[in-house]
Design a protein that fits this description.
Strand content: 15-25%
Shape: globular
Largest sheet: 2 strands, antiparallel
Number of strands: 6
Helix content: 10-25%
Strand order of the largest sheet: 1-6
Mean pLDDT: 90
Order of helices and strands: EHHEHEEEE
Structural class: alpha+beta
Distance between the termini: 18 Å
Radius of gyration: 15 Å
Length: 101
């Protein structure tokens, strides 16, 4: 029900005028993970991880990448145990209503 605010919050945090998603090769190089399997677990310790503040208010969250067998259900507090996690207010905003067509 929310969307990442790439045009405002992410650009501001990156300190850039423009932001876009990395191609698979760059994602693999930076994270060590394959597209479809990128997850917060096992990321390089120096890679910043931004979490929308609303996520931290949830009792349970689903983490993982790829298939259902790779998912973990955990309390949101698990994110605070990972290196370089920053909770960001307004990182995601409510998505506009979908056209009922």
């Amino acid at each position: 029900t929310t969307r990442l605010d790439v045009n405002r919050v992410v650009r501001d945090k990156l300190g850039t005028r423009k932001a876009s998603f990395a191609p698979p090769e760059v994602t693999r190089e930076i994270t060590g993970h394959e597209i479809g399997g990128v997850t917060v677990f096992g990321l390089p310790a120096d890679l910043p991880v931004w979490v929308d503040a609303a996520v931290m208010g949830r009792d349970r969250i689903v983490l993982g990448g790829g298939s259902r067998s790779w998912k973990v259900i955990a309390p949101s507090s698990i994110l605070r145990t990972l290196p370089n996690v920053e909770v960001v207010e307004g990182l995601a905003n409510p998505a506009p209503p979908r056209d009922p067509e």
